[in-house]
C-alpha cells in the first residue's frame, strides 16, 4: 500500500492537488496523510502576561487548524467512496520544509503531492526556489500540481525532460512506469540544448539506457536544438499537450537549469502541467 503525503494550507489549490492525487491513484491501495504545518511564533514571550497571550494564540491556532483538517476530511468523504483509499490527518508544529521532511522520514512516505500555489503555508511554493529546497531535502518523488490540473487531466502522454546524463536509473523510474501503465500512457522524452549539435555516442548510449529502463512503456524521443532549456521545455509541453512532465533531479544539474531562481517566475507562470520530480543518486 502506497503512503502519500498531501501537505495542505486549506487553499483551493491544495484541494485541487488532493483531488488530483485521489484520481491519479484511484485504482491503487493508498493511505493519504493530509498534513498541515503550523509554524512557530517568531518572537519569544518576555513576561508572564506575554507568555499567557502567546499560549492563547497557540491554542487558538492549534484548534483552528484541527477544525480545518476535519473539514478537509469531510470534503473527501463527500466524494465518491473508493475502498482502495484510507485517510489520516496530521498537524505538525514546524516550518513547512522541516515538517514535510520529518513526516516523510517518520512515516516512510512514498510520494509527496502538493499544489504549486496556496493561501498561507505554501503561498510561495511556486516552481522555483522553495520547490527546489523541498526536492533537495527529499528522497521520495514529488508531484507538484498547478491550478486547474484536474479539469484538464489527460495522461495519455507523459513528457520526460532529460539531459541524458544518467547511465543507470536503477529503480528510480518505477513510479513513472506504474503511472504510465495505469493510464495507458506513452512517454515522450525530450532532450533540449542551446547548441546546434547531434547526440554524442555517450548521449546515445544513455538514451538507449532510458528506453530499456522504461520498457515495456512506449517511448518517443525528441531533440530540440538552439533554444534555452526553460523555453524549449515550455514550448514542448504546450505543443504536445502533455498530461504530466517528469524531471530527474541529479545533483541539481538539469533541475537547477530548468527551475533556478531567475527562471522561476516565467516557468511558474507558463508551465501549466503537473510535474513529477525524482531524485537520482549516482550509482
Note down, in words, how this protein is organized:
InterPro entries: Universal_stress_UspA, UspA. The chain is built from 9 helices and 10 strands. The protein is an alpha/beta fold. It folds into 2 domains: 2-145, 3-Layer(aba) Sandwich (Rossmann fold), CATH 3.40.50.620; 157-279, 3-Layer(aba) Sandwich (Rossmann fold), CATH 3.40.50. Helix 2 links the parallel strand 2 and strand 3 (85-92). It is elongated and about 70 Å long.
- Gross morphology is elongated
Instruction: Tell me the number of strands.
Output: 10
Strand count, sense and barrel status of the largest sheet are: 10 strands, mixed
Q: What is the CATH C level class of the largest domain, in words?
A: Alpha Beta
Helix content: 40-55%
Average pLDDT rating: 82
- Supply the number of helical segments: 9
CATH homologous superfamily placement of the largest domain = HUPs
SSE sequence, one letter per element = EHEHEHEHEEHEHEHEHHE
Q: Taking strands numbered 1, 2, ... along the chain, how are they ordered across the largest sheet?
A: 3-2-1-4-5-10-9-6-7-8
Please report which band the strand proportion falls in: under 5%, 5-15%, 15-25%, 25-35%, 35-45% or over 45%. 15-25%
Q: Report how far the terminal alpha carbons are from each other.
A: 27 Å
Helix/strand structural class = alpha/beta
Task: Compute the number of structural domains.
Answer: 2
Protein topology:
Blueprint: E1 2-7, H1 12-24, E2 30-37, H2 48-77, E3 85-92, H3 96-107, E4 111-115, H4 129-137, E5 142-145, E6 157-161, H5 174-182, E7 186-192, H6 201-214, E8 219-224, H7 229-240, E9 244-249, H8 253-259, H9 261-270, E10 275-279
